[in-house]
Design goal:
The chain is α+β, with helices and mostly antiparallel strands and 342 residues long. Helices cover 63% and strands 8% of the residues. A six-stranded antiparallel beta sheet has the order 1-6-2-3-4-5. A hairpin with an 8-residue loop joins β4 and β5. α6 packs across α7. It is elongated, with a radius of gyration of 39 Å. About 1% of the residues have low confidence.
């Protein structure tokens, strides 16, 4: 007779474990299917270049805030010196007025007509009276000087107070921009670190090759230089080819973009403003690339946050960005705005 024994039910715990394992496997498979693929070297480079561009824009704002801070600190120092001098002058005026008041008190304790009546020597009295009149006139003049000096001192103190408030706001802006630059650069480095060592070497080799090709195309004799000083500034910049870019640096061992141009022109005896935006107004603007001459400044991007030297034949010499050195590059690698003939 066939057995009709009831089939053994699976263990409840075992079923739970198997179900959980299967669910986890499905979840992992789903995550793998929907996970973002690793970005290619080209994609990483595009993101890094964008971050470097944003970092440099923030760097020029940092440079502007730093320049403003230095000017304010100098102005405040001068104002504080003026306040100290004015206070000393006021103290001297007050001391002088006190001496006059003492002299007047000593000679003016009696009614003038009675002094004249009792005086054994009327001529001597009249001389003293005349002296007292003069003393009163000097006292009045001294009072006016004191009042004027007090007003000047108050104005100087108010101005110094206002400058100190500006300085505090500028320092906060400086810290904000510094943090922004550092954040952009840290993110760029994180992306670069996601590449393999070979991919990073390939990127570096491509940049070196592009810079070498650009240098080979430079033709400083293709057109006359903008001026003797422009030519001298360009030569000074050429002497720094290979020097590293460091944001906020003005040389001589490292530069950012406007740091290089201002340093190089200083070697030629020309003082340029610190930032690329200010340098954009340092001379005559040239909107046609065909009219540029070696030594002209070249301004890039709509917010004017990058500057370099025109080096002839469509090439620029500049401090590009963090991780790169001063080098030649095609003028077409960045959005050209205009040139500036200093």
């Amino acid at each position: 007779m066939a057995s009709h024994r009831r089939p053994k039910q699976p263990n409840r715990t075992r079923v739970t474990v198997l179900t959980a394992t299967a669910a986890a496997a499905v979840a992992l498979t789903s995550q793998a299917a929907h996970a973002d693929p690793k970005p290619t070297k080209k994609e990483v480079k595009a993101k890094v270049d964008k971050l470097y561009e944003e970092a440099e824009a923030a760097t020029e704002k940092y440079n502007g805030a730093k320049e403003k801070q230095e000017k304010l600190e100098k102005q405040i120092s001068n104002l504080q010196d003026s306040v100290a001098r004015s206070q000393d002058e006021l103290n001297d005026l007050r001391d002088g007025l006190g001496s006059m008041a003492t002299a007047q008190y000593r000679g003016g304790g009696m009614d003038p007509s009675l002094q004249l009546f009792l005086s054994a020597d009327p001529d001597s009295y009249l001389e003293k009276a005349s002296a007292l009149d003069q003393l009163g006139s000097k006292q009045s003049s001294a009072l006016k000087k004191i009042q004027s000096k007090q007003r000047t001192l108050s104005q100087q103190r108010d101005e110094a107070s206002g400058k100190l408030k500006d300085l505090e706001a500028t320092r906060k802006e400086l810290g904000k921009k510094k943090k922004e630059v550092q954040g952009k650069l840290a993110e760029a480095q994180r992306l670069l670190n996601s590449l393999t060592a070979q991919e990073r070497r390939q990127m570096a080799a491509e940049e070196t090759r592009a810079s070498r090709d650009s240098a080979a195309r430079v033709d400083l004799g293709s057109s006359a230089s903008a001026s003797q000083r422009a030519s001298a500034a360009l030569r000074a910049a050429q002497s720094k080819i290979g020097t590293p870019y460091v944001w906020g640096a003005t040389g001589p061992n490292s530069f950012d973009c406007s740091g290089l141009t201002s340093w190089a022109y200083a070697q030629a005896g020309v003082s340029l403003p610190r930032t690329s935006q200010a340098q954009a107004n340092a001379g005559t603007r040239i909107y046609s690339q065909s009219q540029l001459a070696p030594g002209d400044l070249v301004i890039f991007y709509s917010d004017l946050h990058h500057v370099g030297f025109y080096a002839g034949n469509g090439q620029v010499l500049h401090a590009p960005r963090t991780g790169a050195n001063v080098r030649y590059e095609s003028i077409n690698n960045m959005p050209f705005m205009f040139g500036v003939r200093v």
